Amino acid sequence: MKTPHSLIPEQKENIKHGEVYFPIQKYITKLTKEAPVITMHWHEEAELTLITKGSCVYQIDLVEYEASTGDILFIPPLLLHSIILKSSQDFCSETYVFHMNLLGGNTADICSTRYLTPMVNHELSLPCLITADHPAYDSLCKSFAQLASLYDTRMFGYELAIKSYLLQTLFLLLQYSSTRFSTESDSSDKLKIVLDHIDLHYAEALSVSELAKLCYFSEYHFMRFFKKHMNMTCIQYINNIRLEKAVELFEHGNTSILEVSLSVGFHNLSYFYRAFKAKYHMTPLAFIKRLELDSV
């Protein structure tokens, strides 16, 4: 049985989910008051999720969905998405991340050309949130349960059955599909460009003016656009990325706080200390010491 991973991705994932010839991976996502957010990100794979505990707000392709225990979510490939804890109660979900090629998305048969390719290209919009009152809910729950059981037990031939249940899931969702509007895609694409740029250049001096030009927005319009879709200001987001990168460096053995601060884009050490403590509720030095204790 393969141990489920923790789903804490970066904005543009380069992670390969599963194996080359069987690209599907199970993840367990947990949110708490101390770690209440999975930041906005996207990847080439689709996601199928069952919320097993608590409630949250999913933002998928810039649209918010309130979800709670028992709800099912489907996220097509390449769509921006994030998760925010909704209440003080801890949140947990079980997610299967899979590439459409697993289902034949890279072939030239009618299933690929008529259904899978339009899904990947976002020409078809499938329902993202399935709640208990949705007509397809019971059938989707049964498919999800079978998928989960097969993934864990891995009996001989389980790969065939997993493909069949994923295809059945898409078939059920397709009955409630619609055509996607280009305006939704335009806004999402602009935000992806900005997030990509920040992820590549977070260690450099970044200005609102520079990022606004990427979208052909005025600074005022850009700041409103970013805050609306990311639930934080652009500066807050950049600082958050820099702090996450700093944690990665500490976890990889770099113990020079000044060196880490400079390498992720903080050129004021006291500001780095304040921002780090505000996010992680401890100083960088305390974080390093905790890592050292954990490694003993």
From TrEMBL:
MF terms in GO: DNA-binding transcription factor activity; methyltransferase activity; sequence-specific DNA binding
Domain HTH araC/xylS-type: 192-290
The keyword Signal is annotated on this UniProt entry: no
PROSITE patterns per UniProt: HTH_ARAC_FAMILY_2
Keyword Isomerase: no
Swiss-Prot/TrEMBL keywords: DNA-binding, Methyltransferase, Transcription, Transcription regulation, Transferase
Biological processes annotated in GO: methylation
SUPFAM superfamilies from the UniProt entry: Homeodomain-like, Regulatory protein AraC
InterPro entries: AraC-bd, Homeodomain-like_sf, HTH-like, HTH_AraC, RmlC-like_jellyroll
EC number, UniProt record: 2.1.1.-
Gene3D superfamilies, A to Z: Homeodomain-like, Jelly Rolls
Enzyme class: transferase
UniProt protein name: AraC family transcriptional regulator
Species whose genome carries this gene: Coprococcus comes
Gene: adaA_2
